[in-house]
Design goal:
There is one protein chain. It is built from 6 helices and 7 strands; from the N terminus they run βαβαβαβαααβββ. With about 200 residues, it is of the alpha/beta class. It has one domain: Pyruvate kinase, C-terminal domain (Pyruvate Kinase, Chain: A, domain 1). The protein has a 7-stranded mixed beta sheet with strand order 1-7-6-5-2-3-4, with helices on both faces. α3 links the parallel β3 and β4. It is globular and about 50 Å long. It holds the Pfam family PK_C. This is Pyruvate kinase C-terminal domain-containing protein.
Length: about 200
């Protein structure tokens, strides 16, 4: 019999108050496994800054995935562009892309003339509701990063998401491109909120 024992962390509740701990947990697991990239979802850049600070002098590469322009309001990017020089100096990549687990599907299912759910909505809702909202976010950010060539699809990454704001879900993921979604593997859930 072959197995390994690893610690899983459970936050009492979801939310941004877990971000600093999630960053420490992510860096520690990356170092334990020799993982060279952490992907973190960050709408404004605040959560990404927490991770960049926790990653200083580790040699781990940070990929920040933001909402795309127009996510909440037409033509508006929610990311605080004042953070961009800091991330450039830290060697981080700041990227955005269409949310592959919603995007156009959300526009169709929300349209009263078309209505109804889709298979993509079902995948997203399953990740959100049966495990954690942050897992859906982490998976989606990993797909976006792989599609933009910022992470190799043959190497594990740490992927981090959250519930509304901040970070509360940390996992080890083998990335895939969106067109090969079912090749993506969530290999470890390292931290997540226990109550959702």
């Amino acid at each position: 019999m072959s197995f390994s024992e690893k610690t899983v962390f459970y936050f009492d509740r979801p939310g941004k108050e877990n971000s600093h701990d999630a960053a420490k947990i992510a860096v520690t697991r990356a170092q334990e496994l020799g993982i060279s990239t952490i992907i973190v979802a960050s709408t404004t850049g605040k959560t990404a800054k927490i991770f960049a600070e926790a990653m200083k002098n580790t040699g781990i590469h940070l990929v920040v995935v933001t909402h795309l322009v127009g996510f909440r309001e037409p033509g508006v990017w929610e990311f605080d562009e004042a953070h961009l020089p800091y991330f450039k100096e830290e060697g981080a990549d700041v990227i955005m892309g269409t949310h592959v687990l919603s995007g156009l599907e959300r526009a169709l299912s929300a349209n009263p003339k078309i209505g109804g759910g889709s298979r993509t909505d079902t995948v997203a809702e399953t990740l959100r509701r049966t495990i954690a909202i942050g897992l859906k976010v982490a998976v989606e950010c990993t797909l976006i990063a792989a599609d933009q060539g910022k992470v190799p699809v043959a190497e594990e990454v740490i992927a981090v998401g959250g519930t509304a704001q901040g970070a509360d879900t940390v996992c080890v993921v083998l990335p895939a491109n969106t067109a090969r979604y079912f090749d993506l593997q969530v290999r470890e859930i390292v931290a997540m909120p226990r109550n959702r």
